[in-house]
Fold:
Amino acid sequence: MQDMMLEVKGLTVQFRNEDKEYSVVKGISFHVKKGETLGLVGESGCGKSVTSLSIMRLIPTPPGKIVSGEIRYKGVDLLSLKEKEMNKIRGNEISMIFQEPMTSLTPVFTIGRQLDEVILLHTDLTKKQAKERSIEMLKLVGISRAEQIYASYPHELSGGMRQRVMIAIGLACHPQMLIADEPTTALDVTIQAQILDLMRELKEKTQTAILLVTHDLGVVAEMCDRVIVMYAGEIVEEADVDTLFHNPKHPYTRGLLESIPNLEEKKRRLFSIAGQVPTPDTVIPGCRFRDRCPDAIARCEQEHPELLELEQSHTCRCWLYAE
Amino acid sequence: MTESLLEVHNLKVHFPVKKGIFQRTQGFVRAVDDVSFEITRGETFGLVGESGCGKSTTGRAVLNLIKPTSGQVWFGREDLATISPPQMREKRKDMQMVFQDPYASLNPRFTIEQILEEPLKAHQIGDSGQRQRMIADMMDVCGLNRSYLKRYAHEFSGGQRQRICIARALILKPQLIVADEPVSALDVSIQSQILNLLQDIQEEFGLTYLFISHDLAVVKHLCNRLGVMYLGRMAELGTAEKIYAKPLHPYTQSLLSAIPAADPRRKKERILLRGEVPSPSNPPAGCAFVTRCPKAEAICKEVRPTMIQLEEDHGVACHLYT
Ligand SMILES: Nc1ncnc2c1ncn2[C@@H]1O[C@H](COP(=O)(O)OP(=O)(O)OP(=O)(O)O)[C@@H](O)[C@H]1O
Ligand SMILES: Nc1ncnc2c1ncn2[C@@H]1O[C@H](COP(=O)(O)OP(=O)(O)OP(=O)(O)O)[C@@H](O)[C@H]1O
Ligand SMILES: [Mg+2]
Ligand SMILES: [Mg+2]
Structure:
């Protein structure tokens, strides 16, 4: 297909802890087309960042390892590329906004140096031009006194400012595929709106495909065309954004939507899904959500549910919907 | 009579801006610039505002983690600026912080057990057996699987790390917790567990919270009173009920209008902020918001507005109301 940007098939990622090996991402498949924004949501620890890092081939190995699956970018299998070829794609064609700004920014270098570096690596700009571009990028993400911040160190910035520097780095080279891992969690809503507009503009102008990892369902509703929901390393539901919010099927998705604090009504307690996620190394024969599911039936205990196609492009991993 | 646990008077925190090889100070970032508020014992006070407006700096100054440039912080009956270091060390037990960045605030080479035991050891609480029990209890309370005890912080996802941070702050049963974006790294289902947890322990132990957050729905749910900051200054101060029902400051109005709705069918009418984003090292002479305010008048450029009490428990620093 012409407009296919990213295709992930059967991706399985394992981590090793002392003597145990366990999968944290278990055979997930999805795709993102040109100009499309795919949302990725799910319980903290379910494997969203590991999935994103796998696409960039940045899983720390050891302890991590991609054990099976394919990752195709414009038809090219990224997992078979040499490191040198991957380096050309990374930060240029595919770029990523990392979840942890403090550990991704080097504390001993100025913000400017770190931004310049990315720009110089992937463009033909001179040093002077790169600096201009860096400052322009900082202004674009709403940072005031951009010249001063250019010369500052990461610890002199607020949390949200550091996050915006990560965004500036991610967008500096007009990527064709953008992976944004919780890009706006540290931002207030007005600056968040500004950043989302920036991403939308990128998508409209250059047909950038976006994989947006976030737990802010308001951001998902506003930005995404399609959404996948992960739970304990698996995809449990996939649907277009309207269906996901108005006709969610998986009990986990429903619980998630119900947990959103509501601005209109004041409740004393918020709804929350009972229980805890199983640790990645527990062996569960049936459905991994079973112990927390209000609707579990006998079958959920023994058999692992497959992804069922409920309607066109709406899939769900739940026995409640099996014939 | 309600008693205030914390009083902040005219707090200023200015950071030097250095330049050149001699690192000469060429100006100051006015991160916090004359902020006053108080928090009653047992209440939750929210602090919201634009990224970089000085919320975390205020929180750190309240806990005496950075020295204020001027102003006072009263905790109970003591002015934290004047008490002796040993007294301060004792006070630390009563004031804990949960930080914004769960990645940077945990030592990756410590196991969860070591992380949670450290504050107990530092303050000589319990014997080894008692400490083990307290740690196990706190892990349950914070939704951390007990089998994680011997794992290292770097093995955890962002959300799980934030639970560890919360457990660490709670384990000393402090009086005041400054929580800087404690739930922003969590997905909503865990977020609601943690918020319920914060409420439960507040009731149980009479805890007081200074709650810094960008999530305005969470703030509304949790906070009794709140302050809205802009560029190092307090723009609006009052009960959550009043501010959400009738925001007075034009900045608060635009902030509330920008909350995204968790429904793709609802398109909200946003008040967009235009105009130059001001710099805290060279703030406007008058009102800090003047460069972007849709309702600005001539006086706003020249005179810095002071906080005026329009009603009981609702004040605003804006010339529109004078
Ligand atoms: N370096 C590592 N070593 C061992 N385990 C790891 C490592 N990195 C991640 N994991 C494990 O992989 C699982 C998935 O983690 P991941 O960071 O992808 O979660 P996430 O979905 O991004 O969560 P969050 O919403 O909290 O960011 C977690 O159980 C985590 O403990
Ligand atoms: N150590 C420091 N040295 C110099 N400037 C600093 C330092 N710490 C903070 N600042 C500056 O002070 C201002 C306020 O920062 P602060 O971290 O308090 O903001 P914040 O309101 O918490 O923002 P966010 O919502 O993004 O976390 C920012 O302009 C920041 O760059
Ligand atoms: Mg993550
Ligand atoms: Mg902050």
User: Anything to note?
Assistant: Chain B touches chain A through 68 residues (CB under 8 Å). Residues 250-322 of chain B form one domain.
